[in-house]
Amino acid sequence: MVGTKMQFGAAVFAIGMGISMAHGQSDFPKRSLLKPEAVVFLFPEQVTLPAGKASDVILHFRIAQGLHINSHTPKDEFLIPTAFSIPEGAGARLDKAIYPAGADIALPLDPSTRLNVYTGEFTIQVRIVTVAGNHLVEGKLRYQACDNAACMPPKTIPVAIDVIGN
């Protein structure tokens, strides 16, 4: 009886391994379940600023190839602007943000409509006021990414900066 159970278990294991190996050798294309982010925060990861004084920090971002995002001042009110924010109680507050000028583009589907967008790498110059101490500031960048045919839903990504207030 014990030998039969062991043989049955070994057979089930062998069948499972065979199915698993056959699946790995299939002709179906393998796709990652994780899509790369449309926009990523590059740097700075840490800044030291004088406490209580408004200080400039330049935030660097990269947009995935083949995509664009609306600028901070899109041409139509129904388009979602790119915006940076710092939530209340973060140990630092956003005094001001200066966004780059976007580039005007026309889409192949409607060449008469012009969009004001960011592509590739871009920066936002922010003025931050911090209190003394070390604060992990979880800023947020809200944007809407599009390609030449469609737009994705709006998204907000974290912009984590270790702010040291001296």
Write the layout of secondary structure elements.
Blueprint: H1 2-24, E1 39-43, E2 46-49, E3 55-63, E4 68-70, E5 83-85, E6 92-98, E7 103-107, E8 110-118, E9 121-130, E10 133-143, E11 145-146, E12 155-165
Parallel strand pairs: 2-12
Antiparallel strand pairs: 1-3, 3-9, 4-8, 4-11, 5-10, 6-9, 7-8, 10-12
Largest pleated sheet? 4 strands, antiparallel
- Beta-strand segment tally: 12
Total count of helical runs of at least 4 residues = 1
> How much helical structure, as a percent, in the residues?
10-25%
Cα separation of the termini: 75 Å
Instruction: Give the SSE string.
Output: HEEEEEEEEEEEE
How do the strands line up in the largest sheet? Answer: 1-3-9-6
- Classified by CATH, the class is Mainly Beta
Provide the residue-averaged pLDDT: 83
At CATH level 2, the architecture is Sandwich
Rg over CA atoms: 25 Å
The number of domains: 1
CATH topology: Immunoglobulin-like
